[in-house]
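REQUEST ID: PR-0412
SUBMITTED BY: lab tech R.K.
PRIORITY: routine
TASK: structure prediction, single protein chain
INPUT:
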Amino acid sequence: MKKFRNFRNKKKRLSSKYLLMILSGVCIVTIFTSLVLNISGGPLNAVAGYVFVPMQEGINNVGSWFSAKANDFKTLGEVLAENKELKSQIDDLTTQINKTKLEQYELDNYRELLELDNQYADFDKIAAHVIAMDGTNWFSTFTIDKGSKQGIAKGMNVIAGSGLVGIVTDVGPNYSKVRSIIDDSSNVSAMVLTTKDNFNVSGSLMNMNKDKVLPFSELRDKVQQGDPVVTSYVSDQYQQGLLIGYIYSVEDNANNLTKSGYITPVVDFQHLQDVLVITEIKNTGKEDISSSKTSSTESENSTQN
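STATUS: complete
OUTPUT:
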């Protein structure tokens, strides 16, 4: 039985071998005949058309697909590289724009200080930079980077923007603290330029938060909205003629003798950055009187002795 199975397998292998040889021979004879007799049509051409042409088209399609994908990958790489370069250029331009804006902002501040310096040319002044504030949304009290070493003293007036900011309340070697006119503890003796009437302007953070105005009282003369308000000549703390703001509203008090209302400050107390310190303290004559009294007392004591 085993011998029969081996014989059968051997026979099968021989049959396949012979069949392959026969087919190969047929193909060789067919090709040779076609070349010798120059046969360009007929069954051979039809067979080639049905077999090799679709195969060639398939190969071409596959090659075209791979070529297109390769081009796509190449294009994508170029786009990514170009995109990276454009982002870098945008970052550089953004940095340059921000730098230009900062320089323009500083230039505007310096120009504003220069105009203010010219506006109050009768006073000697020192420029200072704000370095700290009290932590609120308003510069009611703040610190500047100039102190006693630069000639700053307690009681000196501070201006910025278009007018009065406040007064120096404390001085260190290289810093000074300033209380602005909007602080709740502030009280400024003011005057309306149109009527020369004197009255008091009080600091009020509540009113600044609400309407960006400051209350005033004890006004006796008739004024109108928009009239300019400056520091009074009778003030014992502030130099005369420093612009404070403009009349915002007025109403009669219950006594029908005085008026009260609000003014709009000319200084932007939310964005203070650079200020000018007037290096003169208001001379009220009190020190001269005191000195005179001291001298008189010393003279009397000397005479008695």
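NOTES: Residues 124 and 171 are 18 Å apart (CA to CA).
REVIEWED BY: pending
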